[in-house]
Amino acid sequence: MKISKLLMMGTVAALCLSSCMNEDFPSANSRKGSMSLSVDYLKPTITRAGVETSDFHVAIYEEDDDWYCTYEKASLIPNKITMPIGKYYVKAHTPGTLEKIMDAPYYAGVDEFEILENVITKSTVVCRMANGSFTVKFSSDFTQAFSDWTISLTDGSEVRIVGRRNFHNRCQFIKNIGVNY
Fold first, then answer.
1. DSSP 34-77
2. Bridge partners, 120 (sequence order)
3. How far apart are the first and last CA of the chain?
4. 7: left (phi > 0), else alpha (psi -120 to 50), else beta?
5. Which of 56, 77, 138, 180 is least crowded, fewest Cβ atoms below 10 Å from its Cβ?
6. Are 71 and 125 in contact (CB under 8 A)?
């Protein structure tokens, strides 16, 4: 008798617990939205040529800095990305790593967005130049008068560049102070 009561109570409990599942309220993880993502750049006032953003590296992160997905090239981003609802941010930058001294401009940008259920969110990451350029030009009088010289550029806290003759008439790019992407 006791065993039959236990079995009946167990069956009733299982039925009650299983009936608590409500199909009308999907879990937050199963609710989806979509986004359309593009990458652009802010054109400097003085530029020699345009910047090709199709090679930019793109990474999407959840609001709490957890990585979500990466595209090695912006050209590989699909027209529509389906994602769980929530808040995210996207980072994009030119290929490579931003260094203190570079031979080319480096662009980087961040954009925050929110994915809503059944909505296509549009996000455009506008990348700005994260380094500045300079060219050192010496007159022939200078190069004839000095056989040896050194150039030092500093931001006030550290020496950014120390160079010799290799900087003459050559465009160099240095990392902007306080820029971290």
1. EEEEEEEEPPPSS-SS---GGG-EEEEEETTS-EEEEESSGGG-
2. 34
3. 71
4. alpha
5. 180
6. no
